[in-house]
Amino acid sequence: MTTVDNQADAATGPGAGDVQQRLVAFLGSRTGGDWDLDRDLFASGAFSSLFSLELLQHVEQEFQVTVEGDDLTLDNFRTVPAITALVQRLRGDGAAGR
Amino acid sequence: MTTTDTGSGADTAIGVGAVHCLLPDELIPVDKLDEIGQLAREEAEFARDCGIRTVGRFDEGVTVAGLAAQAVRELRATDPAAPDPDVLVVVGARAPEVLLGSGSGHVAHEAGLSSAFSFVLDGLGCTGSSAAWSLARDLLVADPARQSVMITHASRPVALDRVRHPVTVVGDGAFAMTLVRGGRPVLRAHRQHTDGRFHDLLQVDYRNAPWYEWREEVSSADRYRFELALHSQQHLKRLVGQVLDDAGVERQRIAATLMQNVTAPAFQFYETLLGLPVHPVCTENLQAYGHTGAMDVVLNLDRLLARGELAPGDLVLVLNNSPVAAWAVTLWEV
Which of A47, A72, A73 lies nearest to residue B225, judging by beta carbons? Predict the structure, then answer.
């Protein structure tokens, strides 16, 4: 089981650990197993358009952000740290600005 | 990016004059397609499991221009008293049959249309038919002397292969239809949008291979499943809202929702997204004929109207989108 340090991280800003933990829990529950922090979402083999929609809706509702336009890219959703950085930036948290 | 608002069309009462769909007698089970045995396992599984049981196949010697012209001729034969169309809009095929020559002129000539101004509407993929509806309406509104705009399209794969992983399996078909004053259903509202960032998501490497090796390829399946899917959900959600606002109607008034036939999971995706059940006629046509490109929404609308389950005044919402990428939403009033 992957564990996530809930402390503030210099690279991703305060609260990043909490975001990561919740994302890991969501992805683990949706894929029926543990989810490694740096696992490539798009190399997981079970990726579909419907799952894309579920993931987006989860990120927007769970973290109270709106993801649209140029932010809807593979790179922003490829790994848990990448999604976390996106969430942090959209929330205007810490050092994760553009 | 381009967004076009053609507004509510109720006052001008421009609608469908007639529709004729041309489908092959020969339906080939997907798992009997010649290419199935040569596909990678993932591609073959996709083809078998995407919700398409059979695809229609015309004789090899028939061209897309010939099919479109046949659809136009047969449509005109059903109503010889109908006025000659003032304009012929040919929705572009997946690949042109000639370079430099005129594909639209070819269709017009073979169809026996001597006075219609003809041209190809291209670059929008499957969404081309929806854009043609809007354009036809605008052409009739712009010039009261025009009485009829004919739209036609033929669907065939660019070469021999029909499986376009992970998008769909391509079937053959052709249609012709007219938009006229006083036609039914009436085109009540239409919105459309394009995004050039996806211009190269689909491609055929035609320069480095003989024609019989051409394949319709998706340059990135991940981009298709993720970026395009999420952009599609945002655009279609917005366009549906705008169309309903333009028409001044509530969502609850929609009697049926249609879309293009790509895969069974795609229907599920858009039902989840929009909260609008896709009418079963779409699934039936997907299973029988596969994806017939820009013809899908015309076939679905025609077959829905033929069922006789809608009453005058009922509203039909038609969603259309293409990986190239273009999106359109049209509201018809029966």
Answer: A47
What is the dihedral sign for C-alpha B75, B76, B80, B82?
positive
Give the distance between the most distant pair of CA atoms in chain A.
34
For B181-194, the DSSP string reads ET-SSEEEEEEEEE
pTM of the model: 0.88
- Residue B36, classed as helix, strand or coil, is helix
CB pair distance less than 8 Å for B269 and A56:
no
Say if the ipTM goes beyond 0.85. Answer: no
| CATH code, B16 | 3.40.47.10
Chain B residue with CA closest to A56: the answer is B230
Domain range list for chain A: 16-91
Our count of domains for chain B comes to 1
CATH number for the domain whose boundaries are A16-91: 1.10.1200.10
User: Is the CB of residue A72 less than 8 Å away from at least one CB of chain B?
Assistant: yes
Contacts of A50 in chain B (CB under 8 A): 265, 268-269, 272
pLDDT in tens, B250-263: 999 999 999 999 99
